[in-house]
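User: F-box protein, Corchorus olitorius:
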Amino acid sequence: MNSSESEDTDHTIALPVLPKDLTYRKHLLTAPPHTDQPCFVFSFVDADRAIIFCCRPGVDKTWTRRSWLIQKQQFPIHDAIKCDGKLYVIYDTDELGEIKFTDSGEVSFRGCDGFTLPPRRSPFYKYRLVESHSEVFAVGRKSIFDIDVFKMNSSQNRWDRVSKLNPDTCFGFYGTLSASFSASELGVKENSIFFEENEFPDIDSSLFSFNLLDMSLTSVYDWIKFRAVCKELKSLAHPIQWTPKLAIPFEYPWLMYPHEEIQGMYNFYDPVSNLMMHSICIPELENCKIRFSHQGWLLVTKPPTSVFFFEPFTRTTFPLQDLTHGLYDAFCFSEAPTSMDWQIFGISHSTPESFKICHLRSGLPWLLGTFQFFPAIAHPFFSNLVFDGQYFCYLEKHGNVLCFDGNNVHHPIVKGSFSRVLMSNYWRQFLVCSGDEMLSVWIHKLRDSMHVSKLNSQGDKWVKIKSVDKKSLYLSQTASLAVETKSPRMRDTVQLCMFSEIHGHDKNKNISFSLKDQNFYIYNGTQGYSALEDIYHTKEIFLRGTWIQPLIQPHAIIW
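Assistant: Predicted structure for F-box protein:
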């Protein structure tokens, strides 16, 4: 920072040169130059302790360095805002402080006792400050669809959560800048919070709007009026663009399922943090069934024969050719529609004597086939389809795996074991691809246990295993994933697309199974995890919900 521009005089005031061996988090001007208010420029160093440089434009020839300790401890400054002649900062993650300054050049720091912000709900959670109508607000964000707003209550020495902003108000965040704008002047809904999200380092940031009143998230496409408000925000006004080679979904999946009472509303639950991430209204999914989830995309059908790809966070729809009929029981696709070589495979058990398949490849028409059941293949029962890189695979209830090569779907091969006695003891079964290995998960018919097996290298026998190499398995009829996890609690667990119906306020926490101690568990808030004797009193989402790996990475927060 080498100059300060005065709006009143259209005059440039030269500033001293800042030390070049440091990086700076933020710069603030306390008041316009040549006014009766104390005018300082503060430059906050990006460091793990409170270091600032300050000077008075037109007065000081050099920058003055200031550094403070609180109770002999170092602390970083994360954000700063000016309001009514005062300079407030967030330090040490969630504490509020004030930097005092006078005309004579004196600068000091004090902590604002009693103004600790609510505890961060996640390591990904970050606070930003914004001034609006001479009031200080703190905006906390864990992800693009999990945002809280708090207002500083000076009379009570506390932060009050707010469910709506002041009338005709919206907030904007870009880089280290924050501002409050008139919603009517922008031509946008009031209670909107605009922010950038840089999902991937090699592409530009995208602009999102989160409405605090209805908790909706919108990707910003055409904001000519928004550009005119502040020239610093011009670079944000462009549509979201997914780059196939870079659009890698966030690894840890969330459970997406419909709201019980509000039609068109979907909940997103994160079993890692045990938090409801957000609820989003998705009218595009009304009267639809989610058939498969992969790489952040959904395959969706709508009666009678409509089928399409859908990305729920940006509401991007990729239409497909209609199906010949709508009676397919399971679907799977190999790659996201952004790929040039995606495939879709479906299977139908509409008659007791035979089953039908359908196969669609990018740029080609649907390919259909009918097969008679034969001795090695019993009538399938509640199984999911997976793609292992070459074959679309289906697990039938006696343990055999029917494999369809995408290049020759009319000649399936059979893998796995065949034991009517053993497999008749199980209620549900799932297939999971874990790297180069094929896993099967079996829930006992008494619903009090489950076991996991791995297909041997010859592909002709299931071998029971007690560990999944510290991974966590996520299972549903529409998605199955094996994810490496850093959390010790999540290792060697199976996360189910099921909720308990007998645990009161925790009925929206999914059920998991620990391979270590062979118990089912449900999260009970402050009590931690409670073991379940069985999973009889549960509800399953079936075709209305799924596990999804968000294309927006919740930890990639750019404030």
